[in-house]
Amino acid sequence: MSEEAKVAYIQESIKEARSRVIAGGISLVCGAVFLVFAAIAFSSLGAAAWVLGGIGVFLIVFGLSLSLYYANERSILQLQLKMRATKTPACRNCGKPIPQGKYTLCPFCGSALVQPLTQNIGENQE
Ligand SMILES: [Zn+2]
Question: Do 83 and 93 lie in a common domain?
Fold first, then answer.
């Protein structure tokens, strides 16, 4: 897999994790609604209220764990993306990734490296 494909893959995974966090939140809200409804209509629903309440509790637990799991997953992925962006700067001349270390010249083509990559755009680079 190329570097760009990996980054695209991580970004895609972040999006996916985000939608699952939202889905978990929706499940949580639905569960709460079920539970409240079951509590309000408890006297008229009888045994059905227990079933409804049970579904509500299940949805709350399910939604909460789904949200928490994917929120954690998402933050790990975002960290990976960040590390990827700072860890492997590419040479502007040959495009090869520069290994970690204090390189002032590209080890592949020998051209001077513009340091650092996080430099402000407005700054004079010469
Ligand atoms: Zn180079």
Answer: no
Q: pTM for the complete prediction?
A: 0.63
pLDDT of res. 119: 44
- The CA 84 to ligand 1 mean position distance, Å, reads 18
Ligand 1 geometric centre to CA of 77 (Å): 29
91 within 8 A of 119, measured Cβ to Cβ: no
Instruction: Give the chain's domain count.
Output: 2
Residue 99 gets the label, from left (phi > 0), alpha (psi -120 to 50) or beta, of beta
Residue with tokens 């929706």: 26
CA of 97 to the centre of ligand 1 (A): 8
Residue 107 alpha carbon to ligand 1 centre in Å = 7
Q: What share of the chain is helix, strand, coil (3-state, %, to 5)?
A: 65, 5, 30
Ligand 1 centroid to residue 94 C-alpha, Å: 4
